[in-house]
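quick one, two chains, predict together pls
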Amino acid sequence: MEKDTLLLLEKVNQLHLEDAEKETVLTFFAQQEQNAAILETIDTTNTERMVHVLPILTVVREDVAQKLFTRDELQRGAPETMDGYWQVPRVVE
Amino acid sequence: MKNVYLDQMILTTCCPTNAGSKMLESYVSLFNATVVEKLTAAGYEIAGKLPVGEFAIDLVGETCFHGKADASPLRDAMGGLSFDVNGAPRRVAAQNDLVFAKPTYGIVSRFGTIPVACSGECVGVTAKTVADCREILSTIVGKDERDGTMHADDVCQKSVNGCQKSVKRVAVIQMEADDQVRAHLEAAKTEMAANGIEICEIDAGVIGAAYAAWNMLMCAELCNNVSRYDGIKYGYRTKNYKTLDELYTNSRTEAFGLTLKSAILYGSDVLSTKNYMAKYDKALRVRRVVVEAFADIFAKVDAVMLPACSKMSYTEGDSPFVENKFTAPASITGLPAVVIKGVQLMGPAFSDGTLLDLARVIAKEGK
């Protein structure tokens, strides 16, 4: 794992690591690379992927509108609100 | 009064559910998890919440932002519900002489739990005795229309409450563990043999590599699931921001711990265009290989026994991504597991009740 790649992953995942943390994360990646090498030793030729242990079909519900919660209830856990809206920094100058 | 604890991954309206993370430190859900509704409808009292490691992926709760995880309150209650993502409740049970039942995937509703690694996580039961564990598990099993990953109701019920197959043959999967753990395995073997159960030993084979695939799948699913925490709709918001990007990044950076960040970044890497086929796709194929390996084993024996952990207490530097070597086989396959007297039993899908019967033999517990 190159540090540049780690920087890209940080950006994509909206995280920022300090230098000391980067070392820890790179060590973690190195350990997981050893795991990847273990998997390479397992023959999966002609083996299909198993995304889920159950044969799951798409769950389809009736298309009926429901009002489960009020706006006030939904905003109860919001860090900042204003006049019934979620408040965010200005995004248009 | 029957009282049970819930861990901090199970949503309740009565008190905050923080997932062991600063991100959700004061989060109170608008609804109860289905398992909570089932317990209260059956007359159980919720005794309180127990700490978990951040998003339940650590060893035994050591990364909890809100204080060290402690299983001792469970000793004063009938039991507790714990969210098993990466095997932590199984390790806690093994190291504290408690019983833990991880049910077959899809027989207990996950509706109202905080999602981490949806394809393998499940709500399990911790208790002091096998009988209490079975009673609580019997209460929470059953189809829930709000969880799209469940079996039919009769299948769920029969897994725990139906007529159980008697166990005649158990295979011990050979895995490295310290002397204390080995002593627990030997004691369990002795007790099973004394009850006429034939014991054989088998190599771990691909089962020993299940953790490598589970680490990839778990981190990939976790990366997607925790992407919802952005400091906008609910949860922690940084005070240090001017732009929207700074709000997102600083909120997540300040709220998440390093173990979780490592897992998020690794999961993102596994899902990247460059690595998707070599890692994520490979791990999905290995999952099938492991499932088939267990099917071959359960064609010959009724259950398997393996350690739940490599040692009976952890020190700094022990990693949940290595120690899950013992718990990942059940997580990645969705098979049931029961931890009893420091050992772990596994059986075919829907053999939950059978495993509890076997656990009762090992614990020398009457019916």
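The longest helix of chain B spans residues 276-298.
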